[in-house]
Amino acid sequence: MAKGDKFYFENFAEGAALSKKAATYLVECLENYDPDKIETMIHQMHEIEHTADKKKHEMNDALAKAFVTPVDREDLDMLSHNLDQVTDKLEEILQKFYIYNIQSVEPAVIEFAKRLVRSCELICALMDEFENFKRSKKIRELIIELNDAEEECDKLYLASMRELTKSTNDVLTIISWREIYECFESCADACEHVSECVGSVIMKNT
């Protein structure tokens, strides 16, 4: 692989690390939730998301200038987009707590956030292997693990939504938490999309 190709894989690894940082920060916020500090939480989360945006912009600039890329530039662009989406979705979760003026959190929410941390850890491991995807013995296993993690999040989403409708008849409460749980689910989907994109690259290039 050409020396200049290193940039792409380092950029992906850095983007994945920022997703993990955002997910870990989300768990910290929820485990120590204080509605009076939600604006500070959102600001700090946005700083992480903004840094992730810079990584995406760097990738866009590199792809615009590149004559030859290690795999199809469309695939590199899609993977960069999908990685950025993970961090965007994590920020959106916290924004929903602000929008709906959430005063306390349920244990299921913290569990969901921890599962997203696990998914982001798998993404980091996947990006570490991506540069050597043609020879890696781990990469397919990591793709499967990410798919399994998304399925577990699906189950938690369904259970949480069912418990919500059983526990209250208050319409605003149901709407608020439905939006929040849907954000969690959307973030889990975004993590899976990263693995699907890598799987597509492997299929095209091996």
Textual characterization of the structure:
The protein has 206 residues and is an all-alpha fold. 82% of the residues lie in helices and 0% in strands. The chain contains six helices and no strands. Helix 2 packs antiparallel against helix 3 and helix 3 runs antiparallel to helix 6. The longest helix is centred in the C-terminal third of the chain and has 35 residues. The mean pLDDT is 95.
What's this entry about, in short?
The chain has 206 residues and is mainly α. Helix content is 82%, strand content 0%.
Give the secondary structure arrangement, pairings included.
Blueprint: H1 6-31, H2 38-65, H3 73-99, H4 107-130, H5 139-167, H6 171-205
Helix pairs in contact: 1-2, 1-3, 1-4, 2-3, 3-6, 4-5, 4-6, 5-6
Number of helices: 6
Strand-residue fraction?
A: under 5%
| Helix-strand sequence | HHHHHH
The overall number of domains is: 1
CATH class: Mainly Alpha
What labels would you give this structure?
206 residues, mainly alpha, Methane Monooxygenase Hydroxylase, Chain G, domain 1, 82% helix, 0% strand
